[in-house]
From TrEMBL:
The lineage of its organism: Bacteria, Candidatus Woykeibacteriota. Residues 272-415, 438-574 form the SIS domain. This is Glutamine--fructose-6-phosphate aminotransferase [isomerizing]. It holds the Pfam family SIS. Keywords: Aminotransferase, Glutamine amidotransferase, Repeat, Transferase. InterPro entries: GATase_2_dom, GFAT, GFAT_N, GlmS/AgaS_SIS, GlmS/FrlB_SIS, Ntn_hydrolases_N, SIS_dom, SIS_dom_sf.
């Protein structure tokens, strides 16, 4: 999940461009950062733990690579930060992925007297290349070394005025502008400097120098003709404005996100509804927040369109895809479009002939390029690691879709407009203060439970995730009916329990579950359109029928945010997490 950026060309602005590009990629990891550059024909390295500072003093250079890390192998230390060097300090390597056979490779290299300074799997790559470059040029050495790595990896190598990049699974994109050439793990890091890009495919190696770049097949060594794409979009610059944190800013942007979908997605939703009607088996897949949107989609199409669709967590879909065929439709949902646990099963599904639809927020992402049909969520840049407005976009789109499949698309637009207005009211000071008071009551609690039924079960799971991710509360979400099957044993006196109680067919049953929890001493926090005496605290929402999943999740988002502030935590970049999960 690490961020990669490299630049080669004339000395003007090369270092500054690399630092700026790395800043845009910090969502991929912020445990540590590092840079390697050439100075007087020698490699220099600067690296440190923590987030990338705004200013890093660097000399002018013609070639430089940089990295922001999300730790996999080895702790968060300066020694484990990338780049990693060969024994002779002539080769620097940055890496995204996991070298699954690194222990075996490391043993072999130690026998050849290679000395290791870190605990990472990445350092193995530098020493492998060092062995091969004794008898080969750098490009050939990287190809041979790369073929020895097992797993999904992207590497960028700097040595003697050249940058060589290779990928399998993890994304890499090349860019070229005036007298400069770039490599990055995301096109968003390139567009400030160029709109001309080449997306590397799996098992390809690119060699960059001051004259340009060449691409080769890493297995055969054959030269590949690059397919240049023009990035015909502008990556929006996310700015805080009046807000203290991006998470709160993005919560406040949610009414506009819903409004955009209700007013501008008619044609796209109609096309997708037609595809679902023709398919012989439709599957929703997603990970994390996107998986709860996918689960909601299963409920929505069942109750609104009387249609059975299948749902799977992306990381488990590889074990459920055996019955896919050329009549199957896979709808993959991912904010970033780079989540490997969605990208990999999509690749497998395509091999079986299935049609793939991507619902993603990032134009040009791996999932976007893989899909046969794509719909951009249109949520705008989401900087905070914890997803908020992208979830609202996903679910709003699925509500619209379910109604369109049943031939009632206009009803969805009316409901979404009501939800848009309701959330706008919830973002007024009086409601925000109500949530703040609740945050002060719960922020010292170690455990918290969330229950819901039907569509609200998906809401409960998403609310739970936010309370885990942002304020680090041990929170568990359950279907209300499962309480009696063991879960209620966890409830103690004063245990906060959020109860999603919309005005639908689940209302009486979920209130009954709330009463059961209260009888064991639980502190009941009700969310819904109707107050009930069982609630110790109430966060009201309007009754917007099937769109209640959109409005009801907002109080939980706000609660997670303000609880984190009470605990002195930074809500935008929670510990151990990254925005895009690109390793298995």
């Amino acid at each position: 999940m690490c961020g990669i950026f490299g630049c080669i060309g004339d000395e003007k602005d090369t270092a500054r461009i690399t630092l700026s590009g790395l800043k845009k990629l910090e969502y991929r990891g912020y445990d540590s950062w590092g840079l390697a550059w050439e100075q007087e024909k020698k490699l220099k390295v600067k690296k440190q733990t923590g987030k990338l500072p705004t200013v890093v003093k660097l000399p002018n250079t013609t070639s430089i690579i940089g990295h922001t890390r999300w730790a996999t192998h080895g702790g968060v230390t300066k020694l484990n930060a990338h780049p990693h060097l060969s024994c002779d300090s002539q080769i620097a390597v940055i890496h995204n992925g996991i070298v699954e056979n690194f222990q075996h490779l490391k043993k072999q290299l130690k026998k050849k007297r290679h000395l290791f300074k870190s605990e990472t799997d990445t350092e193995v790559i530098a020493h492998l290349i060092e062995e091969e470059v004794k008898t080969k040029n750098l490009n050939q050495a990287v190809m041979v070394a790369f073929k020895k790595l097992r797993g999904l990896n992207a590497i960028v190598v700097l040595s003697k005025g050249q940058i060589v990049a290779a990928k399998k699974g993890s994304p890499l994109v090349l860019g070229f502008g005036k007298q400069k050439y770039f490599v990055a793990s995301d096109p968003s890091a390139l567009v400030a400097n160029t709109n001309r890009a080449v997306f590397l495919e799996d098992d390809q190696v690119a060699m960059l120098d001051q004259k340009g770049f060449q691409i080769f097949n890493s297995k055969s060594g054959a030269k590949v003709t690059p397919k240049v794409q023009i990035l015909e979009w502008v990556i929006e610059e996310a700015k805080l404005g009046k807000f203290r944190h991006f998470m709160l800013k993005e919560i406040f942007e949610q009414p506009q996100v819903i409004g955009n979908i209700s007013r501008n997605y008619k044609e796209q939703v109609e096309d997708l509804a037609g595809m679902i009607k023709k398919a012989r088996g439709t599957f929703f897949i997603g990970c994390g927040t996107a998986s709860y949107a996918a689960l909601a989609g299963q409920y929505l199409l069942s109750r609104i369109a009387d249609l059975h669709v299948n749902f799977s967590i992306g990381s488990e879909f590889n074990y459920l895809e055996h019955y896919l065929n050329n009549n199957s439709l896979v709808i993959a949902i991912s904010q970033s479009g780079e989540t490997i646990d969605v990208v990999e099963p999509v690749q497998n599904a395509k091999k079986k002939g299935a049609k793939v639809v991507a619902l993603t927020n990032v134009l040009g992402s791996t999932l976007y390029r893989l899909a046969d049909h794509k719909i951009l969520l249109g949520a705008g840049p989401e900087v905070a690691v914890a997803a908020t407005k992208s979830f609202i976009a996903m679910v709003s789109l699925l509500i619209y879709l379910a109604y369109q499949v049943s031939g009632r698309g206009e009803e969805a637009r009316v409901l979404l407009t009501k939800a848009e207005k309701n959330i706008s009211l919830m973002l007024k000071d009086d409601y925000i203060n109500r949530v703040k008071r609740l945050a002060k009551k719960i922020y010292l609690k170690e455990h918290l439970y969330v229950i819901g039924r039907g569509l609200s079960y998906a809401t409960a799971l998403e609310a739970t995730l936010k309370l885990k991710e942002v304020p680090y509360i041990h929170s568990e979400g359950f279907a209300g009916g499962e309480l009696k099957h063991g879960v209620i044993a966890l409830v103690e006196k004063g245990t906060p329990t959020i109860v999603f109680a919309p005005n639908d067919e689940t209302h009486e049953a979920i209130i009954s579950n709330a009463i059961e929890v209260k009888a064991r001493g639980g502190y009941i926090i009700g969310v819904g359109s109707k107050y009930n005496d069982v609630f110790d605290y109430f966060l009201p929402t309007l009754d917007v029928k099937d769109a209640s999943i959109v409005t009801n999740v907002v109080p939980a988002q706000l609660l997670a945010y303000f609880t984190a502030l009470n605990k002195g935590l930074g809500p935008d970049k929670p510990r151990n997490l990254a925005k895009s999960v690109t390793v298995r």
